[in-house]
Amino acid sequence: MPASRFTPKTPNDRLVLPLDVPSVDEARALVAATDGLVGVYKIGMELQFAGGLELAKELAGDGRKIFLDVKLHDIDNTITQAVKNIARMGMTFMTVHAYPKTMRAAVKALDELNHQDLCLLGVTVLTSMNEADLTDAGYRGPIADVVEARARHAKTARMGGIVCAATEASALRRALGPEMVIVTPGIRPAGSETGDQQRVMTPAEAINAGSDYLVIGRPISKAEDPRAAARAVLREIETALS
């Protein structure tokens, strides 16, 4: 099957920068500092509750690709109507938790709108979780098996892609083929601290494992020079691709 229409074409396309800052003003400053280097800006819950939804529409209106990381999981009708509203905002990516009914309800929204410009991503298992966390939540591991099962459900539901740890990307690329994008958080450039992430890889390792999009936050946003940090990440991506 052909690759997804959302498959990145350039190294810059692959770089996803989370705007995980307390205010819209700080988010705008981070966008300005990295403009032209970052392919996708991700707006998660922290900023969503501080004016981030309006900023998302503003940035999308300016032609930037925006990843609205809402991680929806609710009753079917609520999911369908919420996804319709997000599609109308001009977002490029959005997330729902990778439960079969939730994903089917999300896909239904795009079918009813006949909307092809939003890539729905199923979140498999958060990269901050390890085997013990999964057991505490009542799941029987190992994590890799749970992630693959959810990824296959996402494919059956006709989702645009999945979110998983880069450590699982290689197996999932074999299972899913080229038609779904793989987005991997928990990416840490060589020498960076892992922070609260459990299942991590470097940008080069993630690319070689089959990741399409790399979510890299604090190593860029908390750097003394975010623009230089983004350039360094892009060099790692370019080296891996070459």
TrEMBL record:
Annotated EC: 4.1.1.23
GO BP term, pick one: 'de novo' pyrimidine nucleobase biosynthetic process
Gene Ontology terms: cellular component: cytosol
Family matches, as Pfam families: OMPdecase
Binding site for substrate: 20, 42, 69-78, 127, 188, 197, 217-218
Active site: 69, 71, 74
Keyword entries, A-Z: Decarboxylase, Lyase, Pyrimidine biosynthesis
GO molecular function, a single term: orotidine-5'-phosphate decarboxylase activity
Top-level taxon of the source organism: Bacteria
Residue stretches making up the Orotidine 5'-phosphate decarboxylase domain: 14-233
UniProt pathway: Pyrimidine metabolism; UMP biosynthesis via de novo pathway; UMP from orotate: step 2/2
Record's catalysed reaction(s): orotidine 5'-phosphate + H(+) = UMP + CO2
Assembly notes: Homodimer.
Similarity remark: Belongs to the OMP decarboxylase family. Type 1 subfamily.
Function: Catalyzes the decarboxylation of orotidine 5'-monophosphate (OMP) to uridine 5'-monophosphate (UMP).
Protein name: Orotidine 5'-phosphate decarboxylase
The species this protein was found in: Roseibium aquae
The encoding gene: pyrF
